[in-house]
Design goal:
The protein is of the alpha/beta class. Among the domains are: about 140 residues, HUPs (Rossmann fold); about 110 residues, Alpha-Beta Complex (Glutamyl-tRNA Synthetase, domain 3); about 100 residues. Helix content is about 35%, strand content about 20%. The strands form eight sheets. Strands 12-27-28-29-25-26-13 form a seven-stranded mixed β-sheet. Helix 3 links the parallel strand 2 and strand 3.
Length: about 675
């Protein structure tokens, strides 16, 4: 059976057409050209992935070129951070280059343009030039300095270079056409005076080339075959080509600019200027704050290179701008960490549990599996004693049969340990439960529905957990013309928790990632030390945000409710309906369906789900939906039984990869 081939994206189609029309594969060369004026963010991973991905596909070199033409905003810190991020993502560049390497060549070409009458020095104010620019429907007006002589322009430009003029006193413009329908072609600025220290050229220059003049010529100098950029540069393509027309040698390769849709993410901003404002105003602790969408922030939070690369691959290469739901990014990191993160036990909101019939001085070291997804991960020992911590929310004095955790008179299994029964509680003067008194049974073969995680109080290590929520409460925080994006800051985006973790984490190293069982994925923060271990919450085991969003919509009385009839149906019936169509949906829509199933599963009883375990093998979609739902029930404390084990075993043997993947998570 032949291996399934992925269809080419439109950029790959362009390259294949060029190769078919005679371009040599040896001529292919790409580049990633960041401006070192901030840290890279999640949006840049798409540009990085496209250029370096093409390099890998065609075995072609990829340059890392810094477009460093604005010393007012650029710093060596940003250069170092960008190099670190690209390398961390797993990409290797061919040459490390800088646009500032070409300042002299750009200057020499500019002198020739002035001599050819294609550039002139303008001495107007920026306000006057803006008025003369015109509008998309009205032509511009020529500058009164447009017809200066070549000699006068050469003299003024030379004096600009020597530092005789103040910033803003003169600029150099290309002489194209002030009536052009593309406003970028209306005598664009080529050079301005900037008396700033440059991080590489120091004070050698006080005139700096503009981006449009520098970018295409740098591509040409490096002999880049395909200059790939985001859609906002599409109107610039005409100017890119005009500048190349002035310098290109017919015997050399001419770069070709092509544009792709940038990656936009919900509940996130992608402007480096706005991200810098968050840093400068102290909303976050720095560019690498785990709430930031920067690559360094995501790395510190516990994201992996594999997850980010998978996210970019899933989002795809498109010609139109769109917004990707942040839940897809979170899904990718869950999928990756599920396979690799060791399982440990931690309690974030502790209440004391005393096993009254367990000897006071006894300690047992019980065996616990490190990762059921990885047979090579092995086992570890965890201490068990008379007094434990469990989560407060895992106990209720009275609860319905939907509550699979501990309640008075009820029994649950302690993970990797014994079955316990809650008998009574101790309360303080305010009526708060301070202790739960239980008895244990050494008969671990008994079937009970709930399983709880725990830590031995005597052996537990105190740790700080930084629990993060989304930094913005609005889906498009910078999409409101009448509001500042800062108005949508989530005041509860960081919660500091004093937690207790099992002793195996005592020597956990900075950056190491773990699954806190039943709670989510966490990693050791950079601020951590031997005396003060700190964990960042990377992501929960399921998308809890999806449950919050409908509540916002429900408060809007004016919106129609087209799915009102569906909401009257039992959750299990809706899940079955979603399952029927699941395997026929594209990947993005599958993610939406999965999010809906996860949400509905919170309302499903085990008795409703059990009949679906006998679903026919050919109804793969329904079996996938069943597995997703079962995962929620298990995470909420349902204990496995023979029927569940049989369903999982059968699913693991199936030929459908989606079903197998869901079964592996169980």
């Amino acid at each position: 059976m032949s291996e399934e081939r992925k269809p080419l994206n439109f950029i790959e189609q362009i390259i294949e057409e060029d190769l078919a029309n005679g371009m040599s594969r040896d001529s292919l060369r790409f580049r990633f050209p960041p401006e070192p004026n901030g840290y890279l963010h999640i949006g840049h991973t798409k540009a990085i992935g496209i250029s370096f991905g093409l390099g890998e596909k065609y075995n072609a070199p990829v340059n890392l070129r810094f477009d460093d033409t604005n010393p007012a905003k650029e710093e060596q810190e940003y250069v170092d951070a960008i190099k670190r991020d690209v390398a961390w993502l797993g990409y290797q560049w061919d040459k490390e280059l800088y646009s500032s390497d070409y300042f002299q060549q750009l200057y020499d070409w500019t002198i020739q343009l002035i001599k050819d009458g294609k550039a002139y020095v303008d001495s107007q104010t920026s306000e006057a030039m803006a008025e003369q620019k015109g509008t998309p429907t009205q032509p511009g007006v020529d500058s009164p300095f447009r017809n200066r002589t070549v000699e006068e322009n050469l003299d003024l430009f030379d004096r600009m270079k020597k530092g005789e003029f103040d910033e803003g006193e003169h600029i150099l413009r290309a002489k194209i056409d002030m009536k052009h329908t593309n406003m970028l072609m209306r005598d664009p600025i080529m050079y301005r005076v900037l008396k700033k220290h440059h991080h590489r050229t120091a004070n050698d220059w006080c005139i700096y080339p503009m981006y449009d003049w520098t970018h295409g010529e740098s591509d040409y100098i490096e002999q880049i075959s395909h200059s790939l950029c985001s859609l906002e540069f599409k109107p610039h393509r005409e100017l890119y080509d005009w500048f190349l027309d002035q310098v290109v040698d017919a015997n050399k390769l001419r770069p070709k600019q092509r544009e792709f849709a940038r990656l936009n993410l919900s509940y996130t901003i992608m402007s480096k200027r706005k991200l810098l404002r968050l840093v400068n105003e102290g909303v976050v602790t720095g560019w690498d704050d785990p709430r930031m969408p920067t690559i360094s922030g995501l790395r510190r939070r516990g994201y992996t290179p594999n997850a980010l690369r998978k996210f970019v691959e899933t989002a795809g290469v498109a010609k139109r701008d769109n917004v990707i739901d942040v839940s897809l990014l979170e899904f990718c990191i869950r999928e990756d960490l599920n396979k690799t993160a060791p399982r440990v036990m931690a309690v974030l909101n502790p209440v004391k549990l005393v096993i009254t019939n367990y000897p006071e001085d006894k300690v047992e070291w019980l065996e616990a599996e490190n990762n059921q997804e990885d047979a090579s991960a092995g086992f570890r020992k965890v201490p068990f004693s008379r007094e434990l911590y469990i989560e407060k929310e895992d106990f209720k004095e009275e609860a319905s049969n939907k509550f699979f955790r501990l309640k008075l008179g009820g029994e649950v299994r302690l993970k990797n340990a014994y079955i316990i029964k809650a008998n009574d509680v101790v309360k303080d003067t305010q009526g708060n439960i301070t202790e739960i008194h239980c008895t244990y049974s050494e008969d671990t073969s008994k079937k009970v529905k709930g399983t709880l995680h725990w830590v031995s109080i005597e052996h537990a290590i105190k740790a700080q957990v930084r629990e993060y929520d989304r930094l913005f409460m609005d889906e498009a925080p910078d999409g409101h013309q009448d509001k500042d994006f800062m108005e949508f800051i989530n005041p509860n985006s960081l919660k500091l928790i004093e937690a207790f973790v099992e002793p195996s984490l005592k020597d956990a190293k900075i950056g190491e990632r773990f699954q806190f069982q039943r709670l989510g994925y966490f990693n050791v923060d950079d601020d951590s030390s031997l005396d003060n271990i700190i964990f960042n919450k990377t992501v929960g085991l399921r998308d809890t945000w999806a449950k919050k969003k409908p509540q916002v919509q429900a408060n809007n009385q004016h919106k129609p409710k087209p799915q009102q009839q569906q909401s009257q149906r039992k959750p299990i019936d809706v899940i079955k309906q979603l399952g029927k169509k699941y395997t026929n949906l594209p990947e993005a829509k599958q993610e939406k369906s999965k999010a809906e199933i996860l949400k509905l599963a919170e309302e499903v009883r085990y008795e409703d789900l059990e009949p679906l375990f006998a679903t026919a093998a050919k109804k793969v979609g329904t079996r996938i939906a069943t597995a997703i739902t079962l995962g929620v029930l298990l995470k909420n404390g349902l204990d496995k039984n023979e029927v569940i084990d049989a369903f999982i075993a059968k699913a693991l043997e199936d030929k459908n990869e989606l079903l197998v993947a869901e079964a592996q998570m169980l």
